[in-house]
C-alpha cells in the first residue's frame, strides 16, 4: 500500500518569518486555535436544556401576560442557538463536514428559523473581505448606510433615516429577527442554494411548530404580542452580540487593504489571486510562513493544505480519498478562498461546474479541487515572484482540468 499521506512539511525555525508569522505561530502553539470538544459538548447540552425549559415554561404558564417574561428568556436562548450555529460554521465544533452541516441546519433552520445555508454563504463572503464596502455583503446599503458615499447615493427610507441612524440603531435592531426569517425563506427560491429541499423542510417545520404552539396555547391577541416581544428582543440580542465586534474597524473601499498586510513582500502577489482578500490572505500567509524553501514543490504544499487527494493501491485495487491529516486552519481558509473565487474568476467557476456536472462531485469536493489548483498556482507565483494570471492558471480545457489537479 502506498499513500501520499506521509508528505510532511519541514519544521519552521522559531525566529523565522515576519512579526505576523511569528505571532501566528505563538498563538497556535498556545492552543488558542484548537477545537474544544468538551467545552462545546457542555455548551450544547446547556443551551438545549435552556431551550427545552423555555418552551416548557411557556406551556405551563399558559394564558397569562406573565408569559411575556418567557418571551424575553427565549429571545436570549435563541441568541445562544444562533451563536452555536455561528461557531459550527467556523468549524470550531465538529471536525467532519457532515456533522457541521447537520448540526448547523438543525440549530439554524429548525431551532430558530434562520436559513443556515443562506447565512453561511453571506458570512463566508464577509470573512473573506470584512468591512470592505465593495466586497463585504454585510456592508451592502439597505436600511442602514455605512459610508458617506452610500449616504449620498441613498434614496427613499435609507436617505430619510441616514442622518439619525446612530440614534435609531437599537430600535431598528428589533427588526433583525424578522429579517433573518424573511431572508431564509427568500433564499429557498435561489437555485444555487445547496440542499434547498432539506433547508425548506426544516424551515417549514420550525414555522409550523412555532406558530402552532403560540396560537394553541395563547389567544390570538396574546400570541401576536408574544411573537412581537420575542422576535424583537431576539433581534436586539443578536445585534448587541455581533455589532460591537466591528466597532472602530476602518471601512475599506476599492483597492484599499489593511496597512500591516500590505507591507509584507508577498502581499501584492497574494492579492492578485481571485477571492483572496486582505484578511483571508493574511490567514493563508500566516499558515504558509515566510520561508519559501519550506516546501520543495507544490505537491508538498497541497498535501500540507489537505487539498490534494490520497491515492491508495493494494494489488489490483485502488481508491482515492480526501486527506484527513492536514493543516486544518489552512484547509478552512482554502475553503473560503475557493468559495469566494467562484464569483471573481470565470476559470474557477468553470472548473467547479465541470467537477459538479461532469464528474458528479459534491460541493465540498469540487471546492477542494478549485483550492488545489489555486494553492498550486500560489506556490508557483511565490517561487517565481509573479502575479496571478487567469489565462495561465486555467488554460487547461475542462477535460484536462482533473489531470491538472
TrEMBL record:
InterPro entries: FA_desaturase_dom (IPR005804), Fatty_acid_desaturase (IPR012171), Transposase_20 (IPR003346). Pfam families: FA_desaturase, Transposase_20. It is an enzyme of class 1 (oxidoreductase). Its EC number is 1.14.19.-. Residues 64-254 form the Fatty acid desaturase domain. The keyword Membrane applies. This is Fatty acid desaturase. It comes from Streptomyces virginiae (Streptomyces cinnamonensis).
